[in-house]
Design brief:
Elements: H1 3-8, H2 16-31, H3 38-68, H4 81-113, E1 116-119, H5 127-141, E2 148-150, E3 164-172, E4 181-186, E5 194-197, E6 204-208, H6 209-215, E7 224-236, H7 250-260, E8 266-272, H8 277-287, E9 294-297, H9 306-310, H10 337-343, E10 346-350, H11 356-367, E11 371-378, H12 386-396, E12 400-405, H13 413-426, E13 429-431, E14 438-439, E15 443-450, E16 453-461, E17 473-480, H14 483-498, E18 509-511, H15 515-531, E19 537-542, H16 548-560, E20 563-568, E21 585-590, E22 595-596, E23 599-603, E24 610-614, H17 620-624, E25 626-632, H18 636-651, E26 656-659, E27 665-667, H19 678-697, H20 708-711
Parallel strand pairs: 1-6, 8-9, 11-12, 12-13, 14-25, 17-22, 19-20, 20-21
Antiparallel strand pairs: 2-4, 3-4, 3-7, 5-6, 7-8, 10-17, 11-15, 15-16, 16-17, 18-25, 19-23, 21-26, 23-24, 24-25, 26-27
Helix pairs in contact: 2-3, 2-4, 3-4, 11-12, 12-13, 15-16, 18-19
């Protein structure tokens, strides 16, 4: 077989969906790790459930659409949509089984040992507990419920996506025949699902809302006998496609599509494993369910409630110490943000360092009389975003404010529509994304009039302008007033708002026009150097790797002798360590308390290393269907810090899972080795940097440091 055929042979690739399931297994392994604090394990199990929900609503739904449309084209691993669905069903049943054995056999007994009793069934309640639960039902739950019966005059009700429901078979009291009718009640999402029951003594007890409703379900159907009742939950197709060329108003069209999510095809049914077969038969018929996507659950449905349990007060000793994002040492002075950026580029590493400077950058710009314009892209923002408030204030202060709000950010569409309307009302110029593309880049441009002329200040990042997730996701960013980057930033916004494409670029590399080509060129340069006997090395950190052309280039580079070290959190369709293909490729996935989200790329370049950060993963959607930005890291001190991030993550032997040639992931055997946990180390280093800065300042000024931006409110 020719070399190029080896690089592109489907056998040398992993299916994207199965690789994602492997990632969720890695998250689940954290829930099963008894060395972790107990409540952290609850959190990880909750995350696996939330991840799986989104996987079904989007990825499985998309494959189902392909099957319905008769689409037979195989993926990069040679599997057509029907084959993928068959394999996914098999793997997800295994995963769900492992989730619930972890919950029932490991976590529940451990919680009981620490004085927290999770009541698995209402039948376990003591007489006193039962009395409290019944009173709670009458006072708090019963007024909210809407029981629904199905008969000749009442059709089968709409079961909403992701809602928890209780289905029942009921029989009329004193009826002349034994006819069974179907009835159901939705467990209301507006009430807390986790209900604490007062206990005598030191221990605590909680019960789930559906157990309280099931215990009292007879009071909802007074003229009937309850033959059997079981909770169930469905997942619907939440993916939607919009013909943007035909849509007269993208905002209106997306609002219409959002409403349709509740009516999408049912793609997954979860139900109590003890369900009555007659009840199951009705649900299968009405929901048009296939057997392979019915999940019989031995425990409570929808384990995302464990995140609420994680938030319970009084269990701090069973949680990891909470990290407080640290100040940026370069900003710990009396100068304002613009002066600091003029002095030197500033590097930001979240969540180890605070996201506040990014917010303050926009707040300061909104009030500064010398700022003429603010331009920004927004993909996902928080529910009560201070950035939105600052942009609105800037427009109110007479500044030119242009904001691209990406309406197609999945599951944030409604949130972004509301923000777009808010910004428009404030007088901002709002762009609703581009036809056929998602704008995923993270860039802010502030144009300021200064003594020596107009100066452009730019923030570039790997993560969203979301002050909430910035405490949970690891991301990097830079603030600069480099005139070449400022010129490029202006060109970016001119492209987004007016289809104006510059003749050339100084520093930034954009998708979908140039990023793919630049990455392939960088990889192939390493291949050429290796063939010439020069040192050749690639280090790349990203969320996902599934682009076939990029992977083929990496295979070719490996065969030429390039050392390739990849840090890929999630999907990885590349096979590592395979003889004759990828012996020189090493892949690791880090799953820790923070979600690894930054993208960093290093190329040896014949002894003149090139270092980049980006908003893009190495996926077809990022390289071909999104507006993304890759930017160089050129400041010597920032280069040192970014390279240090890569070095520490490559040394991580606590949270890193290493990809094996057979496609499995294994953790390092730590016996006799010094433990390195990259996330813990970065937390410690961020705090140490602040202590050093304070120590430097102390001889000159013993006053408490207060950033210039906050002094006016002192």
């Amino acid at each position: 077989m020719a070399a190029e055929d080896i690089y592109t042979n489907p056998k040398n690739y992993v299916n994207r969906e199965l690789s994602w399931l492997e990632f969720n297994y890695r998250v689940l392994s954290e829930a099963r790790d008894k060395s972790l604090p107990l409540f952290e394990r609850l959190k990880f199990l909750s995350i696996t459930a939330s991840n799986l929900d989104e996987f079904f609503m989007v990825r499985v739904a998309s494959l189902k659409d392909m099957v319905h449309a008769g689409y037979e084209k195989p993926d990069i691993a040679g599997m057509n949509p029907a084959q993928q669905l068959e394999k996914i069903a098999e793997k997800t049943h295994e995963l769900v089984g492992l989730q619930y054995s972890t919950y029932s056999r490991s976590l529940i007994p451990a919680l009981r040992q620490h004085g927290l009793r999770v009541i698995m069934s209402h039948e376990e309640l003591t007489e006193a507990e039962g009395a409290y639960v019944d009173r709670y039902f009458r006072d708090n739950v019963y007024p909210v419920l809407t029981p629904m019966a199905v008969d000749s005059s009442r059709p089968f009700p709409l079961v909403r996506n992701k809602t928890l429901n209780i289905a029942a078979l009921v029989k009329k009291k004193d009826g002349e025949d034994d006819t069974l009718d179907f009835a159901m009640v939705q467990v209301p999402g507006v009430l807390p699902r986790l209900v604490e029951i007062p206990e005598e003594g030191e221990g605590r007890a909680v019960i789930l809302l559906e157990e309280i409703i099931e215990r009292n379900i007879r009071s909802l159907f007074l003229n009937y006998d309850i033959v059997t009742a079981h909770p169930f939950r469905i997942m619907r197709n939440a993916d939607f496609n919009i013909d943007e060329e035909e849509a007269e108003d993208l905002l209106v069209e997306i609002q219409k599509q959002l409403k349709k999510r509740q009516w999408g095809e049912v793609i997954r049914l979860e139900i109590d494993e003890k369900v009555d077969k007659r009840l199951l038969k009705i649900l299968k018929r009405e929901l048009k369910m296939e057997n392979s996507y019915i999940f019989f659950i031995s425990g409570p449905l929808d384990l995302t409630f464990l995140m609420k349990m994680y938030g319970m007060n009084g269990y701090d000793d069973l949680k990891a110490p909470r990290h407080t994002p640290q100040p940026i040492p370069a900003l710990m002075n009396d100068d304002d943000i613009f002066t600091n950026i003029r002095n030197h580029d500033i590097f930001l590493h979240h969540p180890y360092q605070t996201f506040d400077p990014v917010v303050d950058f926009i707040k300061k710009a909104s009030k500064d009389p010398d700022v003429l314009a603010i331009k920004q892209t927004l993909y996902r923002v928080s529910g009560n975003s201070p950035i939105i408030a600052a942009l609105a204030a800037a427009a109110d202060n007479g500044k030119q404010v242009s904001v691209l709000v990406e309406l197609k950010a999945r599951f944030d569409e409604e949130n972004n529509i509301n923000w777009a309307k808010t910004l428009e009302k404030a007088g901002c110029h709002v762009i609703y994304g581009l036809v056929g593309l998602k704008t995923h880049s993270k860039i802010t441009l502030v144009v300021r009039r200064e003594e020596d002329g107009i100066r452009r200040y730019v923030h570039l990042g790997t993560g969203n302008y979301n002050d909430s997730t910035a405490k949970l996701y690891t991301d990097c960013g830079i603030m600069t007033c480099n005139p070449l980057i400022g010129e490029d930033a202006t060109a970016v916004f001119n492209m987004l708002s007016g289809y104006s494409e510059p003749l050339g670029w100084n520093k930034l590399v954009l998708a979908p026009l140039w990023l793919r080509g630049r990455l392939l060129k960088l990889i192939r340069k390493e291949t050429e150097n290796a063939k010439k006997g020069e040192k050749a090395h690639i280090i790349a950190k990203m969320n996902s790797l599934c682009d076939k052309e990029v992977i083929a280039a990496l295979y070719e580079a490996s065969c030429a002798g390039v050392e390739i070290e990849l840090i890929v959190r999630g999907i990885c369709c590349l096979k590592a360590g395979v003889e004759g293909l990828s012996e020189n490729i090493h892949v690791r996935s880090i799953v820790g308390n923070f979600l690894e989200h930054s993208r960093i790329f290093y190329f040896e370049n014949g002894g003149r290393p090139q270092l980049y950060m980006a908003s893009a993963d190495w996926m077809p959607r990022n390289l071909d269907k999104r507006v993304e930005i890759m930017f160089p890291v050129e400041d010597p001190e920032i280069r040192r810090q970014v390279l240090h991030i890569l070095e520490v993550q490559l040394a991580d032997n606590v949270k890193a899972h290493v990809l094996q040639p057979d496609g499995s992931y294994e953790k390092t055997d730590l016996r006799g080795k010094l433990k390195v946990c990259s996330q813990d180390q970065f937390c410690e280093e961020a705090a140490a940097a602040v202590r050093r800065k304070l120590a430097e300042q102390e001889p000159r000024d013993s006053r408490t440091f207060i950033p210039a931006e906050h002094q006016e409110s002192r």
